[in-house]
Design goal:
about 70 residues; 1 helix; alpha+beta
Length: about 70
């Protein structure tokens, strides 16, 4: 199975937020991108089991978005 995990940067909270349409219940956050990847890796098997979608092998695709407003002084 292939699961897409979306990471969005929450500028106000200064954290990355992970969600997925493929994995119901996934909602994690971390100030570190790499730490969030690890959290997701550990949470996915449990969430799949809770959703009765357990798989012995699966692929995770991480899609990240971060938008910033930049002001140029000149």
């Amino acid at each position: 199975m292939d699961y897409k995990i979306k990471f969005l940067w929450d500028d106000e909270a200064a954290v990355w937020v992970a969600t997925s349409e493929d994995v119901p219940g996934l909602a994690l956050e971390s100030g570190s991108f790499d730490a969030l990847v690890e959290k997701v890796r550990f949470a996915i098997p449990e969430l799949l089991e809770l959703n009765r979608q357990s798989a012995r092998q699966y692929n995770l695709t991480f899609l990240a978005e971060r938008h910033e407003r930049v002001f140029v002084h000149g």
